[in-house]
Amino acid sequence: MTPSTRYDTVAITLHWLSALAIVALLAMGWIMTDLTPGSSLQFSLYQWHKSVGITVLALTVLRLAWALTHRPPPLPTSMPAWEQLAARLGHLGLYGLLFAMPLLGWAVVSTSPFNIPTVLYGALPLPHLPGLAELPDKKAVHELLKDGHELGALALVGLLCVHIAAALRHHFVLRDGVLMRMVPPLTRAAPPLGDGG
């Protein structure tokens, strides 16, 4: 696979850092909501969840900036137009959720009646979002934002499953090299794009 048919090193690195962070966020979110309310472990996981969530927001900003200034490799010529459109819409949906979810989480924290400060990785204080912490009746807004954050997590899981399934289909069924565009360089050559055999 030639360099022009692969994502560059920066894009690949940002993609896999984001993937690891998202898996960690989903795991922490699943675990921490089932723990005893107010326990030290739950508090610690919430703090880590907030820290990693803001990290995902920063990574997404970097990824979008890089994507806008560096042309991605082309999709296989063998891919039908509808599938190319579906791939682009799926990526837009993922980007949208990777922006929305950390911002929603930040808004949830900002409207929490407990008013617990966020300290990223135990070192960097993160202020509440302006205007939300000062609302006279935050409870209703907090519950609405919390529900939105939870629904967003379900939507993210769904889109990620489709994204992973599509990548595996391209690699194992279609064998068109799409997955190899986003993995670190390997010693074994990948099939060229558009080669269905």
What would you note in describing this structure?
The protein has 197 residues and is mainly α. The chain has a single domain, classed as Up-down Bundle (Fumarate Reductase Cytochrome B subunit), CATH 1.20.950. It contains 4 helices and 2 strands, in the order H-H-H-E-E-H. The chain has helices at residues 9-32, 40-69, 81-110, 138-174, and strands at 118-120, 124-126. The longest helix has 37 residues, at 138-174. It is elongated, with a radius of gyration of 20 Å. The two termini are 15 Å apart.
List the helices and strands and how they pair.
Blueprint: H1 9-32, H2 40-69, H3 81-110, E1 118-120, E2 124-126, H4 138-174
Antiparallel strand pairs: 1-2
In the sheet with the most strands, the strands line up as: 1-2
User: Any idea how many domains?
Assistant: 1
Mean pLDDT: 91
Shape: elongated
| Distance linking N and C termini | 15 Å
**What characterizes the major β-sheet?**
2 strands, antiparallel
Order of helices and strands: HHHEEH
For this structure, what is the CATH class? Mainly Alpha
If helices are DSSP runs of H or I spanning 4 or more residues, what is the number of helices?
A: 4
Kindly state the number of beta strands.
Answer: 2
| Structure class | mainly alpha
How large is the share of residues in beta strands?
Answer: under 5%
**Unreliable spans:** none
What is the helical fraction, as a range of percent? Answer: 55-70%
Radius of gyration: 20 Å
